[in-house]
Amino acid sequence: MKCRISQVDRVARTRATILKGGSRAFLLAFAALLTLTMFPLGTSAQDDWSAPRTVYIPETGHTIDGVFLDVWRDWGGASAFGNPITQEFEEDGQVVQYYEYARFEYVPDDPDGQVVHFGEIGRELKPNTVFRAKPALASTGASTDGLSRIADELRAWAPLTGSEARIPDSPTRRYIEATQHTIQNGFKDFWEATGEASFLGNPLTEEFRRGDTTYQIFERGKLSWTEATGVAMEPVGSILVKQYGLETDPQSDAENYPWYSEDLFIPPPPPEPVTPSNPGGERWVYINLSSQYLVAYEGDLVVNETYVSTGRPGFDTPTGTYYINSKYDIQDMQGLVSGESWYVPDVPHVMYFTDVGHAFHGTYWHGNFGAVMSHGCINLPMWFAEWMYYWAPYGMRVQISY
Q1: What pLDDT score was predicted for residue 303?
Q2: What is the mean pLDDT of residues 290-304?
Q3: Is 291 in contact with 277 (CB distance < 8 Å)?
Q4: Of 318, 319, 287, residue with least CA distance to 305
Q5: What are the boundaries of each domain within the chain?
Q6: pLDDT higher than threshold 90 for residue 17
Q7: What is 270-401's CATH number?
Q8: CB atoms within 10 A of CB 143
Q9: Which residues are within 8 A (CB) of 225 and not within 5 positions of it... i.e. 6 or more apart?
Q10: Coil, helix or strand for 164?
Q11: DSSP 180
Q12: Maximum Cα–Cα distance for the chain, whole Å?
């Protein structure tokens, strides 16, 4: 059985991962409580930044999120597993996602707490029949050669026993008792360099040839070797996705997620401290679009600050000097620009600063502050939006630049 994963399930798995980080949720809730006193907060901008829990991979048109994203990044990302070629879905009652070279499986009840397993996709390449010896072939010529190669490949799955299994290991050969197969030469070097069984698993076959290429299948992958290219991984995930007829169409809501870059996971540096010279002066805010950072001032005194999310390319937040012209406790927001439409209900603490729809507002649908995400508005963390809503007077100056 195969079905899509609901947004509720995705959020639950992401939340479970975030909670491993400790008391972040408590700190944010406590900060929100402090804002109700209307007392200016200290600088806590680093707490506003958080790495995205879902990223979009433009090369294949799919996202990676939650614990799958954690493991994909920790183990080397695209260089180790390739990019995602399906969305997450349920396969035989288990949440999985296929990558070019792998399949991730979500196992929430793993006794060791390793909730992401690498699927043993190499086993799924096994043919239905395994020859223990070459079958007798009546044909001759080219057809005989083809049948002989097929027989060699099938026979490679047969475990080594007896005298072959007792040959001592050497620098170029190892016998793996767990699966009763050997690893030799370049395949052995690659297997050992990439973590042995922890990455590819143990060998399921001996080496076999097709034309000028030598192959060997492992529990979680398949290696190839040619004299010209050396050892390479074969895209078993892609092979199985095609074999099983799985859906690979790019998802339609890519604009809701930041495009993957390791830069997204590097906390921005804190801003340079500002020495107050006019406390109690004009209330105003400055937004730096390059750093995705907002600073609130009273005169020259910094009274609060936070990371924000401004307009993504094609929906750029305008630069210049503006003024708060209207405020709404809560509002449904919708729009249509360049053929792209959106509708977001119950947006809190809305503060418009242009006559064409640009506003500050609280943001409950993402936490990717520090990265461009919006259709032109300035997305604020929920606690900061509430504070700013009551702190900012009508007509307050808004300064925006790069």
Answers
A1: 93
A2: 94
A3: no
A4: 287
A5: 142-244, 270-401
A6: no
A7: 2.40.440.10
A8: 11
A9: 186, 187, 213, 214, 215, 231, 232
A10: coil
A11: T
A12: 98
